Structures are given as structure tokens and as C-alpha cells.
Amino acid sequence: MSVSVETPSGEAALRDFVLFHDRVYAGRGARWGAPLDLHLPILAGEGPFGNEREIRPFWAIAHGEVVARAAAVIDRRYQRHWGEALGHVIMFEALPDSDEAVATLMDEASAWLASRGAVAARAGFGLFDLPFAMDAYESLPPSVLRQNPSYYHRLLKQARFEVEQGWVDYKAPVTADLVARWERALDGARRAGYAITPARDIPPERRLRDFTDTWADTFKAHWGFIAFTEPELGHLFALFEPTGFLDSSVIAYAGDDPVGMCLVIPDDPAYAVLAPGRTLDDSEQLDMLAIGVRERARGRGVNYAMAAAGFLALARRGWKWVSYTLVLDHNWPSRRTGEGLGAHLCANYLTYRRRLRR
Questions:
Q1: Is residue 110 a part of any domain in this protein?
Q2: What is the per-residue DSSP string for 219-276?
Q3: pLDDT in tens, 178-237
Q4: Could you read off the pLDDT of 105-114 as tens digits, one per residue?
Q5: Is residue 356 part of a domain?
Q6: In terms of domains, do 160 and 284 share one?
Q7: How far is CA 296 from CA 67, 222, 257, 260, 293, in A?
Q8: 350: closest CA among 224, 238, 221?
């Protein structure tokens, strides 16, 4: 196979880069479409996500057609926060039997990262890039999660990536017993003096400030994470608002002090792309959840109460299942929270790393 690696440029080429996702997943019974509204501005360096980041897309061409793609990222804020000269490889997608093309593609992306001082590259966590599924390949996950084919793991390992981090995903059915459990968790936090406040009930400027500050503080030591800025989170909130997330997301207050946040964004199953005859099971109509509690309020049930509030809001809208979403393998406090809310492990994911200097 004769492979060339090029950098697409211009709006039309970058649009094709994003839409390559749909070509890879065209044979799936149920899938989410390429997130053009999110990925296209990022690749073009437009909007708040270009600040202190260099992004270079690459695609591999064989026999006159694109067979794989990825974007290399130097995130100076990440490097400063973690004190590590790490680069990221995001938006990786590839067709079957593209082993040589992927190896060449990743060599080019890695060389570009190394030329900017990176000593390693991470694939599967960074700038909206989430880990690679390692099972449950045919189920429709929450729209933010990957639904990659099983062969991606072989392609990445042959391209000199090593497993760096494991993750688990949790979801729960909406049952009368669990609804009662969630109501008790919410009532318990309120009796302890915490106000679990829906995002819609908080003035917009304060809502954005409190979400940004609380998320940054509660995730400051979370593996691989870099906090959103107010402009970044404001951009995301504008994209999410049609989902009704303001009703299912909450901030926990102790008096006037925000001590926790829980972002619960329901998916709209109408946007799922289904093959003829394929229908969605109730367990495939889910949400994305991100939760954090400041250290001074941990161990007091605030985490249970916030997630419970989000789940109850979805239950009132007719949701039959809810997602606690991704948790690091070793994050047992969060895993116990998910399990305590009645969720069970439903899928596993992996993040990869490639050393650039040996």
C-alpha cells in the first residue's frame, strides 16, 4: 500500500475531515453523526478553544482516498497545569485494514508533536476526545462517548501506543425503588443544609461563573483533566441549551457558597442514525454526566444528592434509563457513588500513550 499523509486546510477540507467519522460508522445499526458544530471550529482555530493550543489535522491517503485521520494538539494550559510536556492525538478514526496507513499517520502526528517539544502523545483523552471503547461495541452509548470499532486497539498498538488508563461506564434503570432512593438522597442533603439548585434557577452570569469555578476546583487533581475557561464553558452551554440540560443540571450551595456541581445533559434520540429495522432500546436513550464536590463538602452525601436530582429530572421527562457516565478505574469514591445510586457497570474504555523520545 502506498500511503501519503497530508494536512487538510480550508473549510471544505476540514468539513470532510470531520465527516470522515460518518464513513467509518456507516455500517452501524445505531450511531451518532459527526459533531460538526463542535469539531469544525476547533480544527479551524476559531472560538475559545483555540486559546493557548496548536492543532494540526492529518489524514492518510491510500489508493486516492482517505483511510484514516487524526489531529495533533499541543495544549499549553494542560502542560502548565500538569508540568508535563505531553501532546494529544484526538479525533482518530480509521477504516478497516488500514494498519500501514495508521502507523504512517501516527508517525507524522508524533513527529509534529515532538517538533514542538512533546515527549509523549496521549490518544483517548483530551480536548473532547474520550477513551476508546473495548466492549459493548454495538450498543448506542451517550453521544459524547466513543463507539469505535474493535480493531482500533490493534491499530493503536501497532502504531506504538501503549495502554495508559482504564475507565468504566455506569448506567441505571429508572425504577420505583431507585426513584425513592434518589428522593431520599436529595432530601438528606437538604436536611443537612445544602441547597441543590437547578441550573435554570441560577442567574446566567452567576451560573456560568459558579459552574466554571466549582468544576475547576473539584477536578484540579483529576487524571488528565484541564479546566474549562468561562468562555469555553459558555460556548458549550449555548450548544447544550436545546437539550434542556438547565433543568437536569445542578449546583450545590452551602449558604451562598457553591460546593458542588453536576452537569447532566440528556441526549435527543431523534438525532441517532438508525439502520432500517433498527430501533433503540430504552437502555440506549441516555445522558452525559459530570460531577464534582469541593473537598470541604465531601463525605456528606452532596454527590449522591446532586446526581439524584439530575436523575429525577430525567425521570420526570420520561427517561427509562440514566447514565452515570465515565469513571476512572481507580476512582473508587466516584464508582461507589454510581453503584450507590443503583447504577451498574455497562462498558469499559481505554486511553493510550506513545512515548516520543526513547
A1: yes
A2: TTTSTT--PPPHHHHHHHHHHHGGGTHHHH-EEEEETTEEEEEEEEEE--GGGEEE-T
A3: 999 999 999 999 999 999 999 999 999 999 999 999 999 999 999 999 999 999 999 999
A4: 999 999 999 9
A5: no
A6: no
A7: 50, 17, 11, 10, 8
A8: 224
